[in-house]
Write a structure and sequence with these properties.
With 182 residues, this protein is α/β, with parallel strands linked by helices. It is built from 5 helices and 5 strands, in the order βαβαβαβαβα. The chain has a single domain, classed as Flavodoxin domain (Rossmann fold), CATH 3.40.50.360. It is 36% helix and 15% strand. Bound molecules: flavin mononucleotide (FMN). The site of flavin mononucleotide has 16 residues, from helix 1.
């Protein structure tokens, strides 16, 4: 059977981003039924309805196509001031428009939130879920993934500790089953 195309969105543009590192780990352990691809979002102009009147920016068109042709979405998000970083929020807005052409609708999603603090970016995780309700992305409810104290989860050689690897593996196995329901 063909693999399901899962677009991966990372809410940090930072070179040394922990969210990006965790996303890369997940790419390495992805279940066989899922083909994961990280989509760039930093190049997307801030959403402005005026730009959607004629020919929208080319990068919006390409990004919308990618989202439209995905079978599901995986989000990795830091928390900025108890919310979702602007770059990720913008990507959600861009692919949800123009009005009446929401490219997200009906595809299964899941979120992993990652923070250097103990709370595991709980706020961002749930703010993201709130937006996903509106753009009609059914988000996996369990297991939840709040990765806190992330700096402590990599050893001196930069390898992710085994416990967290197992946790992510379990999360991805559940997500594969979630995708299979749609
Ligand atoms: C503007 C800004 C706001 C932040 N606000 C929060 C926050 O509300 N909660 C939190 O846990 N960490 C917060 N942080 C710290 C992030 O957890 C930390 O920078 C983390 O490493 C970001 O993820 P990244 O490594 O993937 O870039 C904030 C960081 C920045 C730059």
């Amino acid at each position: 059977m063909a693999k399901k195309k899962i677009s991966v969105l990372v809410g940090s543009l930072r070179k040394g981003s922990f969210n990006h590192k965790i996303a890369e780990e997940v790419l390495n352990i992805a279940p066989p039924g899922l083909a994961l691809e990280i989509l760039e979002i930093g190049q997307l102009a801030y959403y402005n309805e005026d730009l959607d009147q004629g020919d929208p920016p080319q990068e919006w068109v390409q990004f919308r196509d990618k989202i439209k042709n995905s079978d599901g979405f995986l989000f990795f998000t830091p928390e900025y001031n108890r919310s979702v970083p602007a770059v990720l929020s913008n990507a959600i807005d861009v692919a949800s428009r123009p009005y009446g052409k929401n490219n997200w609708a009906g595809k299964p999603g899941a979120v992993v939130s990652v923070s250097i603090s103990a709370l595991g970016a709980f706020g961002a995780n749930h703010m993201l879920r709130q937006s996903m309700v509106f753009v009609d992305v059914p988000m996996m409810q369990q297991p939840e993934a709040y990765v806190g104290n992330v700096k402590k989860l990599f050893d001196e050689s930069g390898n992710l500790v085994e416990d967290t690897k197992k946790f992510l593996q379990n999360f991805m196995d559940a997500y594969e089953k979630w995708v299979g329901k749609f």
